[in-house]
Every structure is written in structure tokens, then in C-alpha cells.
Amino acid sequence: MLIRIPDRNQPAPGEITDRAVYDDRRRFLKGMGALALAGTAGGWLPAAEAGRKLEGVRRTAYRTDEKLTEHRHATGYNNFYEFGTGKDDPARYAHTLRTSPWSVQVDGEVNKPGRYPLETLIKGLALEERIYRMRCVEAWSMVIPWVGVPLAAVIRRLQPNSHARFVEFTTLHDPTQMPGQRSGFFGTGLRWPYVEGLRLDEAMHPLTILAVGLYGETLPNQNGAPLRLVVPWKYGFKGIKSIVRIRFARSQPESSWMHSAPGEYGFYANVNPEVDHPRWSQAFERRIGEGTVLSPRRRTLPFNGYAEQVAHLYRGMDLRRFY
After folding, report:
1. Residue 256 binned pLDDT confidence (cut-offs 50, 70, 90)
2. What's the gap between Cα 116 and its chain centre?
3. Looking at the DSSP assignment, which residues form a beta bridge with residue 285?
4. What's this model's pTM, rounded to 2 decimal places?
5. Do residues 73 and 289 make contact, with C-beta atoms less than 8 angstroms apart?
């Protein structure tokens, strides 16, 4: 902040602040500004360590009466192949990921391209808690209280142009931080970096969020810190983690799993219990934390139980062909 001083009160030469002190003060004020900015996003800072409580999180009507998955299961049983293919590999190896500073490149068919610091990307957007059922293509599921912002709100401020029909997301590619991206480390056959995409109307749907936390705390690295996509009516592999790029496109992007296994993983990835995976049934699921692998399974719901909210997006489409 600049303060205008009337001429009659001009300081004497001995009262002029030393330049080094002045520069230190500027750095201090800049830091205070960052703290104030964080307050507009529910007290969250991208530099916050995993597990830090998020302040000012707003509860929403996006909830379920189902029992929450225990925190230890949601953070200890994950798919994040950048850190290995075992379910406990992400929790074991993801401590190597540096989540601050973090920025997101925005480009393509958009009026406001650029590289946005994460705190700028969500500036002024209230953090919301959304309790969603999550279903993995491997036939297991969880119920997780996510904390994030509506993706639609972020998209509106970026202003995609009239040619934008799809949104493509890209995960960080850095084998020094992500050992699963190294040759010979628990090979997955995936092409790096990991890429996923949505139709623009899917991305703008009120259920779709960019998550920065879960269970009221900042995201652990193994869950996709510091920014991940959550689309609850789709299989889990659509929930791309550690996002560093958002591109608005005219044509449908090729996702990583479409490239590596097109016969098994399609672009839409809508939960459809009537369409089996080539290697297993999708009609049932096992809720993680409920008993053992021998416990009774749950019947999988169309669109993971969100059909009333999203089925209209696919009216007239052959959901066996567009899987």
C-alpha cells in the first residue's frame, strides 16, 4: 500500500528508510498478502502439509447417509500408479512428491490462458465438503468426504471460447519425484504423463469438483495432492491426481488408459453395472473396510447412484458402445 505524504512533512535525509530494510518489509507484506488470499479459500494454503485442518469449509447438500470409509482405508488403499501398482505403494512412496509451490498451466481454446499459481486458480472460491460414493473399475468402492471447489466455477473464470467442447487434464511428470514413472519400477505400460478428459458439459456439472482435501484436511500426497479431479458417477481412473495442466480442446482427447488398453477403458467411464470389464463383472462391488474379501458384496448402481442427476447428459447414447 502506498501512503502519500504531504510536501510539508517530507522526511529529513537521516529519516529515510534503508533500502535493505524496505525490501525486507516488502517481502513481509507480500507474505501477509498470501495469507490473506488463503483466507478467501477457506484458510487453505498450497504449502500446507498433508493432514492440516482446513478452516471455513462449507457443508453442502451433496451428502449421503451411508457410513464413511475410515480415513486409514481412504488414505492407505489407493491407485496412483505414478508411485507403484500396489494399493499401499502410494502411501509408501508418495512422500517424495513436492506440492509447493504448485501451478497449473491453462491453454487451448480459452480466453484466459496462462500459468496460474494454485492459490490464484481457486482464489475467492469457498471450500465445500462433498460426501460422495466412489467406485473403482476394479469393483471396490468407498464413501469419502471430499473438500474442494466446483470445477464449473474455475472454468467460468478461465472463459473457454466457443470452440471448446472438451477439457483435458494432465498429471505432473517427474520421475525424480514419482518413482512409478521410472523405467523398470513396477511397470504399468502407461504412457506418461497421465492424461484424462471430460466433455465440457460433464466438467461443468454441479457434481464435478476439483478437490484439495478430504476429511476436513489437506489432501495427502497419495490421494492426489495438491489438486485432483473428482467425478462421482464415473469410475475412479477418471479422477486424475496432482494436476498441472488444464487444456480446453475442440476434439476428444485420448486418455492414458484409452491409449494403453482401449478395449478395457473408454473415454466416458460411466459406472454401468450392465457392461462388464473384459476380465471381471461390474455388477457388484466390495466396500473397502466392510468385513473381508469374503463378505457379501453390494450391487452396483447405474452411474454409481447418481443417475437422477446425470443420466440426461447421455440421453440417446449407446452406453455399451460409449463405455
Report:
1. very high
2. 15
3. 298
4. 0.85
5. yes
